[in-house]
Design goal:
206 residues, alpha/beta, Rossmann fold, six-stranded antiparallel barrel, Thrombin, subunit H, globular
């Protein structure tokens, strides 16, 4: 397999560095950018030097589906794009991204095993992303929007399960579903807040 050039576009240094290290370790070339302006500059340069883009949809000052549209106006759909799953805001964005030829989705952080109960049904899945107010789950059988769910998971490095009453905020069979926490024990919420602050924000740079 020939070496490839991959752009990693994310405003979090930890995420950029982790992906770049993995790519270089696999024998590829990694270019990292932290803003939409930097990213578009690369695309306006020599497109033949770009083999793949791994993209955070929430880059500062410009992002979302409009950023992908701007890229497609430059490259005509030539460069495969992987989107960080945790930056998706809604099922509508998933549909818009599919129409723009986005190749797929990738998780910024290590997946966490999740068990959830809906009525008398108990299922297991992996997280796509975690925030202080909810989590996204990777599943090909998502529940309907607004469904009430009891969810249980364990934060990485913890030996204690976190439980929360939740509702489905968005649902899409190609990606999974987003659960919004509605009732969480204060101790569990504190553990979630601390984990998110440590892993998602302390490494952000202006």
């Amino acid at each position: 397999m020939s070496n490839k050039t991959v752009i990693v576009a994310d405003d979090t240094a930890f995420v950029r560095d982790r992906f770049a290290t993995a790519l270089v370790g696999a024998g590829h070339r990694a270019l990292t950018v932290k803003s939409a302006a930097e990213l578009l500059t690369h695309f306006r340069g020599d497109l033949t030097q770009i083999d793949l883009l791994v993209l955070d949809l929430r880059l500062p000052h410009a992002g979302g589906v409009e950023l992908v549209r701007a890229i497609r106006k430059i490259d005509g759909g030539r460069v495969p794009i992987l989107v960080f799953s945790g930056t998706i805001a809604s099922a509508g964005e998933v549909k818009d991204l599919a129409a723009l030829g986005v190749a797929g989705y990738v998780n910024e952080y290590s997946a966490v095993q999740v068990a959830y109960r809906f009525g008398n049904t108990i299922a297991a899945a992996l997280t796509l992303n975690l925030s202080k107010g909810g989590l996204a789950i990777r599943t090909m059988s998502p529940l309907e929007q607004h469904a009430k769910v009891r969810v249980r998971f364990r934060l990485p490095g913890s030996k204690v399960d976190v439980e929360a009453d939740s509702r489905v905020g968005w649902s899409d069979r190609r990606v999974g579903m987003g659960l919004q926490f509605e009732k969480v024990d204060p101790t569990d919420q504190g553990a979630i807040d601390e984990f998110v602050d440590q892993h998602f924000f302390t490494n952000r740079k202006a």
